[in-house]
Amino acid sequence: MHSSKENRLTVGIIAGNGDLPLRLVKALERDGHGAVLLRLGVDYSVGQAGAIISFFKDKKIHDLVLVGGLARPNFLTLKVDRRGMQIVSKLLRRSLGDDALLRIIREELEADGFRVHGIHEFMPELLCPVGVLVSGKGDDFLDEFLSVGIKAAKEHGALDLGQSVILDARTGSVLAKEEKAGTNALMKSVARCEGLKVLFKASKPQQDYALDLPTIGEKTIEVAYQCGVSGIVVEAGATLIPDLDKVRSLCEAYGIFLYGVECQ
Question: Which residue intervals of the chain bear CATH 3.40.50.20?
Fold first, then answer.
């Protein structure tokens, strides 16, 4: 998102773990935008919503990006301010999946006049491209069941339980579905299973792209190798791969194929 003088933004970054927040700062500056970084767990806790909102309002910032890793908080021990308590109370009154929780966070920010953006709006190069990114042993079995795996991932995602499934690419049967523990736990759950195990990961039909895109990284590939997963298929244009070169190198080293596929 390159800027002219007229559409230059100063973007507030609510930063979790990892190096993506600082990479986003550099990308914004590269494209002529400004950036103000707030580090969750360092500057404020995730429960100090009032303080976070005031921080950005005082700096006259209207555009926000939430980026970086953040564990689901323990609401019983979370440090909160008055505004944070109002939000936590709302969350505790309802049984929420991750997407519903994120929607409430977005609604709260937008109610205060903020525009919430996804990191991909400023760093589109992080999105997985279409095509065979790495070929490998067993991918010749995949063509017949490619649509089956993506459909299974989408249907599972609609339940707001997870973004991934593991398919046996020889039979087309679903071996396991992601739960709250995440993708790595899913792969570990099939470590002892037989078959040509392929991880399918796709955005949920109700996914808020500004807050939570599916993501794979080097750790994903390491765990896949340890668990005997032969390949990974992700939704192109809707999956973040923060360091594609490193991910491809690991896939090649471990003989894991990697596909980016378009979904209708």
Answer: 10-121
